[in-house]
Amino acid sequence: MDKPCGTMGPGEIPVELLTHLFVSFGYINSAFEVTNMDGIASHIYKDIGNVKAKNPSLKIVIALGGWAFSDPGPWKEVFPKMVSTKANRATFINNLLGFLSQYGYDGVDWEYPGADDRGGTDDDGKNYVALLKELREAINAKSRDYIVTFTAPSSYWYLRHFDLNAMQSYDGDNPIGHQVLSHTNLTEINSALNLFWRVGVDPSKVVLGLGFYGRSFELESASCWKPGCKFKGPGSPGRCSKTAGILSYAEIMEIVDKTGGTPYFDEAAAARYMVYDGNSWISFDDPETFQMKIDYASKMGLHGLMIWAVDLDSPDLQALKSISNGELIGRT
């Protein structure tokens, strides 16, 4: 919302091309109520709910948490405390269901980073499962068909209380490593999904996530620019995204148009990569590599696709339209 350009207000969201809209991110306050992120006006939830007027069949889901929710500060300890007792969980569940009813939303998505260095506790795992179980029971008791989705490790103990699991196919490699590699890699996607199949997860409960952005790096040497070459840091921030190491799909297409360069094809990863501005390197998907991943998802019998995020697309919605025109039964 605070980007200088490349923004998209609720009324601009191309809901006619979507089946589900995930609102990222909602937070949970110390009273265990759903609230807005810092710097985001509370009326955003009502404004987004109003877009159903343009697509009555659209399902709107509030995504709770996100990486920044566990940053040092007032929010960091909320989740462990909320899930720590049955009474706290019941308070939150009651508040959540009231939120969904108030704004006409259709479900909740969990984006809780549970790593030890992100504020997690030893009891979070079992308490999280208890929360999911009790949430599902509360939804069933009200005879509602609210959707429950998440991004999390593959485990039957998590999955049995969910309708769908969003499996990210992006951010596989990032500027924490030592070599430039595609952050969206079909080989790694296949390996990750194999973990799901080993524990008996039904493919129809898995949605493949696609990223409308790329990961950029500053190469250590301009003479070594293929995947596997070393880098010395993240790429320069984009003029709109303003984040080192990340460029939106719109920004990437601007670079392609500006330089007249042809992105290289990484066949093993089913992704594109490109060198620009001397020693800058970026990996990303385009319509052709998106289709390769759609074909893979269809072959594996996945439920559908999700994207992060619609406001990162080009002004003509090239990425979204290429996915919407793809062939995938059960698209979401």
UniProtKB/TrEMBL annotation:
InterPro entries: Chitinase_II/V-like_cat, Chitinase_insertion_sf, GH, Glyco_hydro18_cat, Glycosyl_Hydrlase_18. GO terms for biological process: carbohydrate metabolic process. Pfam families: Glyco_hydro_18. The keyword Hydrolase applies. It is an enzyme of class 3 (hydrolase). Keywords: Glycoprotein, Glycosidase, Hydrolase, Signal. Residues 1-327 form the GH18 domain. SUPFAM superfamilies: (Trans)glycosidases (SSF51445), Chitinase insertion domain (SSF54556). Coiled coil: none annotated. One of its GO terms (molecular function) is chitin binding. It comes from the Eukaryota. Its EC number is 3.2.1.14. Belongs to the glycosyl hydrolase 18 family. Chitinase class V subfamily. This is chitinase. It comes from Fusarium oxysporum f. sp. raphani 54005.
